[in-house]
Specification:
Length: about 250
Amino acid sequence: MTPSSTRPLTPTRPLTPHRPLIAIPARFAATTSALRYAAEVNARALIEAVWRAGGEPVSVHPAAEDVAARLARFDGVLLPGGGDLAPHRYGATDTHAAVYDVDETQDSFDLAVARETLALGLPLLAVCRGLQVVNVALGGTLEQDMGGPEREHRHLVHPVTLRPASEVARATGAEKVDASCYHHQRVDRLGTGLEVTATAVDGTAEALELTGARGWFTAVQWHPEDTAAEDPAQQNLFDALVRAARDRS
């Protein structure tokens, strides 16, 4: 028998780099083409942008129970787009006719995720509705409708100016970007500690940051995942999130 000391070494596979776990609250869908029933989903472009950045995207069930404990196992969080928040969540007594796709369960979960993520100091990227959720979670309000089709930012790519040296400018590596937008609401009163770090030509707040945030954080009103595969500035936002998550893990 060959002595163990002289046996040839078995080739080993190279270690796969650790992919930080990125929690993404799932969205309720009444129907999907691939399933027979209602589903919980996330946009494929969003998932792929996180994967390209080196993260492991994980859809999280929207149940507002033990949110802090559930999030603690993750390395970062991405709050995605979706329908409108219920106006009563920010103190409104009337609901504009344009408000759509309100879901109280989704609202409760997303607001809890925003608050707990910031409290835990987890890296957080908030997109579109996600930005609005963070603003409301910190006591801010929303303009329920921007003024109809001639003023809203739906199916629109437009220039956004980023404040120099802001987190969003550092993340994208730019001071101006072409932003793919789909929203008819926008920030009205800012939540506590938030500041506007990017604006559209019409003055709409397009990015927010939080003074004294415990972890990496930025929020954008547009959908960077729409063009991230072709636009490095947009992909850089996801790269920055995953990099911050990796540095923390």
